[in-house]
Each structure stands twice: as structure tokens, then as C-alpha cells.
Amino acid sequence: MQITPVRRAGEKKDVVFLIDGTTSTSSKFPSIRNMMRILVEKLDMGLDKARVSVVQYSDEPKLEFPLNEFSTKSQVQERIMRLTSKGGTRRNTGRALEWVSRNIYQRSAGSRIEEGVPQFLIVLLGGKSSDDVSRSSASLKRLGIASIPIGSADADSNELRQISSNPEVFYIVNNFEQFARNQPTDNLIVPLFIFAQYWEKDIVFLIDGSASTGPTGFAHVRDFLLKIVQQLNVQPDQVRVGVVQYADRVMTEFLLNSHNNKAAVINAIQRLRNIGGCSSELPDAIDYIMENEFQPFAVARPAVATQHLVIITAGRSTKDFHQYGQLLKSTQINSIAIGAGRGNTQLIQIASTPKDFIPILLLPDLQTQEVFQHFIARLTGLTPVTLSDNETPCKSSQVFFFLLKITFLIAAFLQSSFLYFNHSGQILKTSRYSFSGGWFHKFGPKQLQKNDAIHH
């Protein structure tokens, strides 16, 4: 399949800000304005490039300016900084979302949705909606609008899930005003793990099928693989998945090019059964992987896609494999190792970094949200971050929060140099980015500030 050439950062996109203008949010309004200004700074503005619109709402929505009113960044930023809170007692987010879907994503309002230009909606809200958001959120999804909700500490996480294009991606700010005042523009933070699904990757799962795993343990491994694949955009020019099983022998279940869509990969994984065997020598399996999987004849794509080896084992190997860590790193294969059992730390030797080793006590632990989120974070090159005692987590997550800079994330999300779209605005693929060390390491970890975190 022919791969579409890389699109540059200045290409077309329509970005709509829907902002809460209720009286109860008026004290936060200056920081909301400032956040919009910061995000606009990241865009390459122009009527033939990025367009921006702002809609403010409370009881009723109010169009501040349409997508085709301004042609320069300075014009948009100046207009944003002159906005004032409209006031109002009811926060009718559902009505506002419906109004935006009907009135803004239209040719008459400057939207280029009919031309296949990517459409974005960034919702900034100060609390729980006074009306239902489910139907209007569904309408936006049907239109192919990429919605990103950012709420204050009073926002309702279930509502944010409904508003978001992906229920795994929503943001809650403890304090808008303090957040905007204390954070420099390169240190605003948000979860990023869900965007793993859009990056070009070749992923080979190497799974222990020995008697140490057993049928019950293997079922947990299989379910874990299914959960991961559900998060990936499996297509020939995006994410490819292969599976190899090992015990006293090594067997390819399917190659990277065996299945070209998510449904086919899921069906193949569901049919997996452990091969059995009294030994599980990981060095032999890695030799097999290097000779048979990450090779051109197996359709590995090191020139255009990041290469990933995911090892899941139920016990220790009797053979030394210290040398394999250096071998994998020399071939730019990113290795994530998940090992069950007490003291099973030898996998650190072959994980790309110590953070890429995920120890678990028992294979059923693969089903925990903690392990799942840790894995996804490592697949994207991020570092899982825990909150300090002074932070208050969202109800939906109590252990790991995957945090990165908000301006960089949304800029990357909006920048066409990272994302590709089809005629209906659906995300198709991204340009390649080397994850040797990952974005987190490239830009450097930042110390979270008290009351400045965004929780997911």
C-alpha cells in the first residue's frame, strides 16, 4: 500500500474553542483566555492553513467569531484577549455542543469539513453541565469532530468522557487561574497514552506458552493482548502486529503482515492456545525473533515505523541473556518486558530502560488497570507519574497518571505533520517519530506543582 507523503505543519485544520461563560466560572475566565492564546500560538494560522473560532456559552451559546473571520495569529490572539464572560446561571453544555455541531461546522461559518479538513473542538468548562451532553456528543462523533474536553475541579468526569472523542482522554484542572499563572507555556500537562494508537509501529508480542503459564495463565495473557490491540489502529500503513509463542520450541502464530485490520488480529488472538512444554528459554526465543520477525521478508518497517518487542513471561529463564539487551538496543528495537513471579527481575537486562520492565506477581495481574496503563505509557515512550499526597485524583483512576505538556500535546494533536486524515476527517496515520527515549525524554521531565496537575 502506498504511504501518503508527510504533511507539513502549516496545512489545513479548523479549531473551535467552546468556552464556559457562566457567572460561576467568571473568576476563571482570564486563565481560560490565556490558555486559548497559548494554544493558538502553536498553530500556523491562515485562511488556507489553520482557522480558529470561539463560541462562549452559559444559558445559550454565543458566537464570538467564526472560523473565517481572522486570517492571522495576532488577530485571533488579540480578539481572544478582549473576550469577557457573558454570565448566566445555567451551564447548558449539551445545548452548546449541539449548537456548535449545527452552526459552526458548516461552510457558512468558515468550516472546511466538506473538503475533508480536520475538525477539532476544544471544550473548556468550569463544572457539571445543567443539561444532558450525551446526544450532542454523539452528534459530534458522527460528524468526525475530534473533541478534547478540559474541565475545572468541579467538572464531572463522566460528562467529560461523553464529550471526548475518546473516553480515555479527558482533563481536569484543579485551579484554572493558578494553573495558568504558575505554569510556563511548555509545562502544561495532560495524559497522552491514548495517542499510541495513531503512531506507525511494528509490534511483535513474544509470549510464554510453557507449562509455567498453563491454560489459565495463558488466557490472562490472551486477554491482555486483546485489550492492547483494541487501543491500536491496526492497518497496513499504521500499526502492524505479530505474535510469537515460545516454550521448549518457538512458533510464529502470525507475522506482522498476516492481518491488515484490527478485527482480523483480534480474531487470531482469540484462537491462540498455549503450546505447552516444560521449559521456556527466552534467549532462544529472542534469537528466533531477530532472525524471523524483525526482517524485511517479514515486512518489518524500520525505516518508517518504530519497532517494538513485547515479552510476557511466567517465569525465569535458566540461560543468561544479558547480551540480548545490548543486541536489541543496537537494532533500535524498543523492548518492553512483563515478568510474573517474585524476584523475576532478570528481564530488566533486555528491557530498553528500567521503566520498560513491568513486574507482576501473578498473570491475572495483567488484567489490572495499573499494568495496562503502565504498558501503554511505555509503548508511547512516556513515564508513568504518581501524584503527591497533596493532589486529589479523579474517581476514575487512583494509581497512574500519564502526564505531558498540554500545549505540546494539543499542538501535536492539531499539527498535521503528526496526523493524517481521510475525506471524512477520520485520523488515518501519522508521520514517524523516533521513540528511542520518547517525547518525554526529549523534552525533559518536569516537576509537578501542587494544585497544578491535570488528572485523568
From TrEMBL:
The chain crosses the membrane at residues 399-421. Residues 14-188, 202-379 form the VWFA domain. One of its GO terms (cellular component) is collagen trimer. GO terms for biological process: cell adhesion. The keyword Secreted applies. Signal peptide: none annotated. It is found in: Secreted, Extracellular space, Extracellular matrix. Its main location: secreted. Pfam families: VWA. Keywords: Cell adhesion, Collagen, Extracellular matrix, Membrane, Repeat, Secreted, Signal, Transmembrane, Transmembrane helix. The keyword Aminoacyl-tRNA synthetase does not apply. PANTHER family: COLLAGEN ALPHA (PTHR24020), COLLAGEN ALPHA-3(VI) CHAIN (PTHR24020:SF13). This is VWFA domain-containing protein. It comes from Oryzias latipes.
